[in-house]
Specification:
By secondary structure, the protein is α+β, with helices and mostly antiparallel strands. The protein has 3 domains: 88 residues; 42 residues, no CATH class; 80 residues, Alpha-Beta Plaits (2-Layer Sandwich). The protein has 7 helices and 10 strands. The strands form 2 sheets. It has a 5-stranded mixed beta sheet with strand order 1-8-9-7-10. Strands 5-4-3-2-6 form a 5-stranded antiparallel beta sheet. α1 runs antiparallel to α2, α2 packs across α3 and α4 crosses α5. The longest helix is centred in the first third of the chain and has 30 residues. It is globular, with a radius of gyration of 23 Å.
Length: 243
C-alpha cells in the first residue's frame, strides 16, 4: 500500500486562496454599501443589513485565520516562528481587535449611540477596528475595545448629546433628468453646519428616487434649524425623522 504524502503548499496556492477570500470580502462590502445607500428591500432591509454586518464581522476574522494557516503551511518551521513572533509583538492590538469583534457582534456599540465610560459621557462618532471615538463636550476621545470590554460601559437612552439627526428629504418639484442624490450630496458637502468627522449618510428610497433619508451630524445642535432651512431653500422638503 503506497504511503500518502501531504501535498506541498506553495506561494501560488497562498495567492490563490488570498484572492478568493479577499474577493469574497469585497463582494460582501459592496452589498453592505448598497444596502446603506438605497432602501430596496422594504421591511426586510434592516434585518438583511444586520445579517450582512454580522457575516462581515465573523468573515474578516476567518480570512485572517485562514491566511495565517496558509502562510505557515508554505514553510511550517520558519513561517510558523515568524508569525508567532509577529503575534507576540502585535498582541496588544490583536487583543483590542478581538475585543472589538465581540462587542460589535451584539450591535449595541454603534455610531450615534450615547455611551458612558468611566468619567466620560458622549456620543459615539466612529467605530474602528481597534476602538471607538467618543464625542463629548470636552472633545473627541479614543477608547480601545479592550478597555470597554474589561472595564465596562453603559449605553444610554434618550436624546443624543450632540448633533446626529435623521432627516427625511424629498424634492418638491423633481425633474426627470436630474440626479437629486448628487445634488443633495453636494448641498450637504457645502453646508457650513455639517460636522465632517462623521460623514453624512444618504439612503435613497427605492419606490421614489427623489426621496431620501439622511443621517447628518451638525457642529452645534442650535444649527439644526439653519441646516433644515438651507435644504428647504434649495427646493427640498426636509423634516426630522420620527425614528
Amino acid at each position: 500500500m503506497d504511503n500518502y504524502t501531504i501535498p506541498h503548499f506553495t506561494w501560488g496556492n497562498f495567492i490563490t486562496v488570498a484572492i478568493v477570500l479577499i474577493a469574497t470580502y469585497f463582494i460582501l462590502r459592496f452589498i453592505k454599501i448598497m444596502l446603506d445607500k438605497a432602501d430596496f428591500l422594504g421591511a426586510f432591509q434592516s434585518n438583511v443589513k444586520r445579517i450582512v454586518n454580522s457575516i462581515l464581522l465573523v468573515y474578516e476574522l476567518i480570512v485572517i485565520l485562514i491566511l495565517g494557516a496558509s502562510f505557515i503551511l508554505i514553510h511550517p518551521v520558519f513561517n510558523g516562528l515568524l508569525l508567532g513572533f509577529m503575534a507576540v509583538v502585535a498582541f496588544p492590538h490583536i487583543r483590542k481587535y478581538l475585543s472589538g469583534r465581540i462587542i460589535q457582534f451584539d450591535n449595541v456599540v454603534k455610531i450615534g449611540k450615547r455611551l458612558s465610560f468611566q468619567n466620560k459621557t458622549g456620543q459615539i462618532a466612529d467605530t474602528g477596528r481597534l476602538g471607538i471615538k467618543l464625542r463629548t463636550t470636552k472633545g473627541l476621545h479614543f477608547i480601545d475595545y479592550s478597555r470597554l470590554l474589561n472595564e465596562g460601559f453603559t449605553i444610554l437612552s434618550g436624546e443624543e448629546v450632540s448633533g446626529l439627526y435623521q432627516l427625511e428629504i424629498a424634492h418638491k418639484a423633481p425633474e426627470e433628468r436630474k440626479n437629486y442624490r448628487i445634488i443633495l450630496h453636494d448641498l450637504l458637502a457645502s453646508a457650513p453646519y455639517i460636522d465632517w468627522t462623521q460623514k453624512p449618510q444618504i439612503v435613497q428610497s427605492n419606490s421614489n428616487p427623489n426621496q431620501f433619508k439622511a443621517s447628518v451630524t451638525v457642529k452645534d445642535d442650535n444649527q439644526l434649524h439653519e441646516l433644515i432651512s438651507l435644504i428647504q431653500e434649495r427646493g427640498f422638503s426636509c423634516k426630522l425623522s420620527k425614528k
